[in-house]
Amino acid sequence: MVSWIIGLVCSSIIAGAAWRKKSLSLSGAAAAIVVGSVLYALGGLPWYGTLMVFFLSSSLLTRWKHRRKAAVESSYAKSGRRDAGQVAANGGLGVLLCIGNSLWPDPYWWAAYIGIMAAVNADTWATEIGGLSRAEPRSIVSGRRVPAGTSGGITIMGLTASLCGGMAIGVAGWLFTGWGAPQAVTAAYAGSVTVTAVIGLAGMLLLGALAGMAGSLSDSWLGAVWQVMYRCPVCGKEIEKNRHCKDTQAVRIRGASFMTNDAVNLISSVIGGGASLAFIGLLT
Ligand SMILES: [Zn+2]
Q1: Band (75; pLDDT cuts 50, 70, 90)
Q2: pLDDT, tens digit, for every residue of 130-171?
């Protein structure tokens, strides 16, 4: 019970600050409080701390050089302010894995969690840092140059950022499980400590890098090939949202309507989790 209260209080303070700073919408803040409370109460510091590294780093990166990125982002579904759908796409799977781990403890839950967090963090870092690249992106599908901000456009800077974003989660997972000193963490989180202790810091770095790249590249590929795209009838721009210019209904030009940006994020984070499970399965 105490851990639920601590989780609720900490998450409310952080989500409240993020809402005031316009990093989260009201629905996004409510969703973040639920995600944070469950992860703290059921997963303790390893699960909650890893989520916080993703949340705080992505919020800071989103605000960083916001004005320069805003020009590119205006036609896309992503905006600086994350709503409940985006929080759920990023944190919902983590919550399910954490609940699974508390019901049927097993190290694989933690391995999958690190993989999905590495994937979402890598993708966010790639979007926020790669968006500042002066090099013109190339399509992950055709290799041809595409305008900055296009779904599926990749740059060296973006790829490097996604590698670092994945590795940051690996390091966070290692730190919050007792930085190689597993006795520092209570038995309740034994599963997460087992994985980290077996593969060590180097293994966690490699795991984060691998899952992050798998998630981030599949996000680019799904974004380019499957994601729904609309055209605004007023200005003629190709956009990810179904409304543009003064909230005019846009016309779908390709992709399935359920394959929104949130759906693409969700699927690519599952791929990151799968890559992590495969990696752990091969090592242990
Ligand atoms: Zn328009």
Answers
A1: very low
A2: 888 888 889 998 889 988 877 788 999 999 999 999 999 999
Longest dimension (CA), the chain: 62
Q: Write out the two tokens for 237.
A: 């721009």
Q: How many angstroms is it from 33 CA to the middle of ligand 1?
A: 34
Ordered DSSP codes for 38-70: HIIIIIHHHHHHHHHHHHHHHHHHHHTTHHHHH
Residue 80 makes CB contacts below 8 A (sequence gap 6+) with 22, 23, 62, 63, 66, 70
Give the number of other CB atoms < 10 A from CB of residue 237: 14
Distance 284 CA to ligand 1 centre (A): 52
Distance CA 127, CA 203 (A): 26
DSSP string covering 253-279: EES-TT--HHHHHHHHHHHHHHHHHHH
Q: Distance from the CA of 244 to the center of ligand 1, in angstroms? A: 5
- C-alpha of residue 242 to centroid of ligand 1, in Å: 10
